């Protein structure tokens, strides 16, 4: 299957700082990327959808000014958590669709990034 | 709004047993259904993808079925092994994606295979 890579895999930051998480499709061009967050023992919740070269579409209740998403190329999307607070601590996972999965709609996921805000 | 429910929430069985994980969804207008595996602290590994026009998919010891009209899917694991221990997630993609057609996930079934 297609490979999606996330970086960093974990990050600890102080409250009030901003953190950037990268999501890359390594062996295919991702026309669409999705960002999810997952709290302990909870399901994945879709935060936003991004298409290359256009603004991200955010789910209801997700603050677009707090969670900045950029999909500048067909292989890279970034999520920036601005002015992070302890309640933003979570597991953030990206997924991508494109290339071999464009017709089937199959999604491939990154390894996730665990954010801890002190 | 689509809701996905997985039963049971947790399951522990001895090695070698065959088992079934259940997934139900409230809106049958789906594009596809995907089963994933998630190991602790890790991302998701895609196991099987079933298109809305299909009834089942098989990969090795895994078999997934889909009954769209009743809003149900099952994941059958044959001859379970300790390495199968993980959380199994079911997710559906809506047919009418609109601006955001990501997946709607269930909460998962936490599976433990006892050696």
Structure description:
The complex is a heterodimer of chains A (118) and B (115). Chain A has 118 residues and is mainly β. Chain A has strands at 4-7, 10-13, 19-25, 30-38, 44-51, 57-58, 67-73, 76-81, 90-98, 108-109, 113-117. In chain A, the strands form two sheets. In chain A, strands 2, 4, 5, 6, 9, 10 and 11 form a seven-stranded mixed β-sheet that branches. Chain A is globular. Chain A starts with a strand and ends with a strand. Chain B has 115 residues and is mainly beta. Helices cover 0% and strands 58% of the residues of chain B. Chain B has strands at 4-7, 10-14, 19-25, 30-38, 44-51, 56-59, 62-67, 72-77, 86-94, 103-105, 109-114. The A-B interface holds A 1, 4, 6, 34, 36, 41-46, 48-49, 57-59, 91, 93, 95, 104-112, 114 and B 4, 31-32, 34, 36, 41-46, 49, 51, 89, 91, 93, 99-108.
Report the major sheet of chain B. 6 strands, mixed
User: Level of helix content of chain A?
Assistant: under 10%
Distance between the termini of chain B: 40 Å
**Poorly predicted segments of chain B:** none
Classify the secondary structure makeup of chain B into a structural class.
mainly beta
- General form of chain B: globular
Average pLDDT of chain B, to the nearest integer? 92
Shape designation of chain A: globular
Counting H and I runs of at least 4 residues, what is the number of helices of chain A? 0
Query: How many beta strands in the DSSP annotation of chain B?
Result: 11
Head-to-tail CA distance between termini of chain A: 37 Å
Count of DSSP H/I helices of chain B: 0
